[in-house]
Amino acid sequence: xxxxxxxxxxxxxxxxxxxxxxxxxxxxxxxxxxxxxxxxxxxxxxxxxxxxxxxxxxxxxxxxxxxxxxxxxxxxxxxxxxxxxxxxxxxxxxxxxxxxxxxxxxxxxxxxxxxxxxxxxxxxxxxxxxxxxxxxxxxxxxxxxxxxxxxxxxxxxxxxxxxxxxxxxxxxxxxxxxxxxxxxxxxxxxxxxxxxxxxxxxxxxxxxxxxxxxxxxxxxxxxxxxxxxxxxxxxxxxxxxxxxxxxxxxxxxxxxxxxxxxxxxxxxxxxxxxxxxxxxxxxxxxxxxxxxxxxxxxxxxxxxxxxxxxxxxxxxxxxxxxxxxxxxxxxxxxxxxxxxxxxxxxxxxxxxxxxxxxxxxxxxxxxxxxxxxxxxx
Length: 377
Prior knowledge:
Blueprint: E1 18-23, E2 29-36, E3 39-49, E4 58-61, E5 68-74, E6 80-86, E7 93-98, E8 106-107, E9 125-130, E10 136-142, E11 154-159, H1 175-189, E12 193-197, H2 207-210, H3 220-226, H4 228-232, E13 238-248, H5 250-261, E14 268-272, H6 278-282, H7 288-295, H8 302-307, E15 321-326, H9 335-346, E16 353-358
Parallel strand pairs: 11-12, 11-13, 13-14, 14-15, 15-16
Antiparallel strand pairs: 1-2, 2-3, 3-4, 5-6, 6-7, 7-8, 9-10, 10-12
Helix pairs in contact: 3-5
């Protein structure tokens, strides 16, 4: 739309979501990244050539490779674009491509340590399963390469995605999220099945699915996540009695809901810096605007906030729970986990909970601290 005001003109439309538009210096083109139609795990770099008439813009894609191609930036002369690429076997690297169609991108960096066998990494399978309202919930199933061939069942790790807008289908371009995909691969090397649901609120599935969490935090979205365990139980190579759940931040919130709403569904849970109570979260100055935009205020919507308070149900905890939190976390204040542990102890759950504190840091997850539970409960 004109900077002076007027009607907006839609440039892209289809079964995909567009993100991170970037103007060329000459203001005649816009680079962006978008998932491929009906393939939410892959994102490609596109260019919208609008010239002087946005209503007749043409769209061309300059990447075709599997994985995520994102965050395009124009060269000073507008002839090339540099962008980040990551996929199921490669962590984030820089690539450059000509802005014209048909040019082969050139790799600029190699971030994966030398000597790593890329063929050992497991690529996820896209699946769907019924959600609480009957809608199909998309998810990503990671199966160890020897599991389906083995006759004995394997333990599994039911993993909530790290955040509702960051599906863990490939190495993430942000290092702080990429480490969790690495951790999934670690679990797979230990023989665990890993499942990452794209519960409502996730990107890549359209506006309605993305906005499905509005005024329903910890409702159907949390059920989408823990109902992934029901899907895992249908797999012949999964031991239904040895399914664990873990998640970070909003995923930690889901973990707390799962282990209190369904106390015996999971063998154990790991909450990494999860929100224990959204009323408390709302009153934190750093987070109240974000929370109010999605849930209103506690005074106006007490039932919505009550639904988003797993700490209120901690007395139902029946299986081991490990809590990890950094004391300098400003996104989810450390006090959330302190209060959670205090309530767990008051309710006589001290034999079921463990608390790992990371002083003066954001939350850190060590690969040998959770989820691997062979034999011991």
